[in-house]
Amino acid sequence: MSSTESCGHPPVNTAKKRLVVLISGRGSNMNSLLAATRSGQINGEIVAVVSNRADAEGLRVAASQGIATAVVDHRAHPSREEFDRALYQVVDAMQPDFVILAGFMRILTPHFVTPLTGRLINIHPSLLPKYPGLDTHRRALDAGDTEAGATVHFVTQELDGGPAIIQARVPVLAGDTPDTLAARVLGVEHAIYCEAVRLLCDGSIRYSQQGQVLLDGNPLPESGILFSER
Ligand code: GRF
């Protein structure tokens, strides 16, 4: 009997999943994922953090915690496609089970997305399908929304348009500015990204060939799991 089998039960793959995190800036989501892997909450290991910007604050944070880092500078490549090919080569060489976009501020082409379909996820600071793209908090405030939030989703060719894994809502409060709302949303971002990656690494969440998100084999609703803090 191998270490992944147990008497009378289907084999469970207990090997830690290899995670590569892509960032462009501060890296607070990356850092909370790192804490969750190290505490054992996530059955995975961040094997590297990759950025398109050498000056990304999150790279320093990762390196200071002993995580391998790499830079693929988009300005060193003549086109988006060539950047994506170079980025894919670097990431693929790290043999990731999952690739996690955490504040990675580049639009990705099929050269990167297609070979990683079902293994590439992103977090977006809005209640998708509302407000794909930039400036989500100002747009929510301008629209007079009473709720905002964040969504973790599988990445497809459509910008911020792939199927949702999990979503969390927060209230919009009187007097909110884009900054105060962003800070409230960021708190739930950290929680839902850890939960999504935990479920992925456990094998509870997967992407079907039909492009659906399955939780324990059952399709999720369009907005994914509705997160509630325990
Ligand atoms: C987060 O709000 C994330 O949703 C968005 O970019 C921000 C990154 O923040 N895509 P951090 O770098 O993880 O602190």
Please characterize this protein's 3D structure.
It contains 6 helices and 11 strands. It is an alpha/beta fold and 230 residues long. Strands 3-2-1-4-5-6-7-11 form an 8-stranded mixed beta sheet, with helices on one face. A 3-stranded antiparallel beta sheet has the order 8-9-10. Helix 1 packs parallel to helix 6 (178-202) and helix 5 crosses helix 6. The longest helix is centred in the last third of the chain and has 25 residues, at 178-202. The chain is globular and about 45 Å long. The termini are far apart. 38% of the residues are buried. 5-O-phosphono-beta-D-ribofuranosylamine (GRF) is lined by residues 23, 25-29, 58, 102-103, 123-125, 150, 186, 189.
Describe the structure using short key phrases.
alpha/beta, Rossmann fold, three-stranded antiparallel beta sheet, 11 strands, binds 5-O-phosphono-beta-D-ribofuranosylamine
Give the C-level CATH assignment: Alpha Beta
CATH architecture: 3-Layer(aba) Sandwich
The gyration radius over C-alpha positions equals 18 Å
**Widest beta sheet: strand line-up:** 3-2-1-4-5-6-7-11
What is this entry, summarized?
This protein is α/β, with parallel strands linked by helices.
Write the layout of secondary structure elements.
Blueprint: E1 17-23, H1 28-38, E2 44-51, H2 57-64, E3 69-71, H3 80-93, E4 98-101, H4 110-113, E5 120-124, H5 136-142, E6 147-154, E7 164-171, H6 178-202, E8 205-207, E9 213-215, E10 218-219, E11 225-226
Helix pairs in contact: 1-6, 5-6
The structure holds 5-O-phosphono-beta-D-ribofuranosylamine.
